[in-house]
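Risk register update: the risk of archive-format incompatibility is retired. Evidence:
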Amino acid sequence: MTLSVLAKDADIARVVEALRRDGAVIVKDLVGGEVVDAVCSELRPELDSRGLEQESAFNGSLTNRIGNVLAVSPSAAALLEHDMVVAVANEILLPFCACYQISSATAIEVLPGEGAQALHRDDTPYPIDIAGMELQIGVMWSLNDFTPENGGTRIVPGSHRLLRSWHLPDLRNWEAAAMPKGSALFYMGSTWHGAGANQTNDRRMGLINVYSLGWLRQEVNQYLTHPPEIAAQFSPRLRALLGYTTHTTGDDRLGNFGGDCAAWVRIPPEEAWYKGRDGVGTADDAAAQSGL
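Archived output:
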């Protein structure tokens, strides 16, 4: 099975079809070089100063990682709330939630000489595995060219079809996601993947954003990582994605807040995130359920 590679003007339906079928899909040249260069420039000081603080057997010893992406790179907002990303996430996640959220956003720079990362799924922090329900989707942005030689993300196509409690896929059947700078690799949270080995003399830099169902706990605490004074500078849509809104707008809200906060979004800015999902009962409903 070979990963599909689509153009930036591909219909959302085609992107979603390939993602559901194969567990991953590449969309080439989705953002321009100016945006990517701005993000890289803003990330550079933090990667150089703190990138290796998360060194481990899983994360690698020659891989820079930082998780406070928006705090150091405001330009990354264009990637986290990109229109195609939102449209694809709507299709995959909204059947199972009222709205979804950014679970984590991580800049990852694979340095020369780094070995291949262990293949894994992103949805394993959650102790549930339900056939047909994706808990997350991930989007890996290539901030420079990804190749099989420099550590381009390895994907096991079709591995999202296997429940983790039942089957381990044949992890030898991986494919490197080769894509030019400014491209995006969409993949399911249940798809097995991992960074490749960097056998070149150049760094491979990517930005991976994971979006999860709105009623799940975020992998990274976005309220501490991007507190209100930082979040407030971004659009209402991005603030909602960070979690500064409620899950549903009706009687059964999660994450409700009644105070003053510059970052708070009272009504989700995307109609698809609340219309027909508010759970508000009528007076007749309340009377029928009174038990009297």
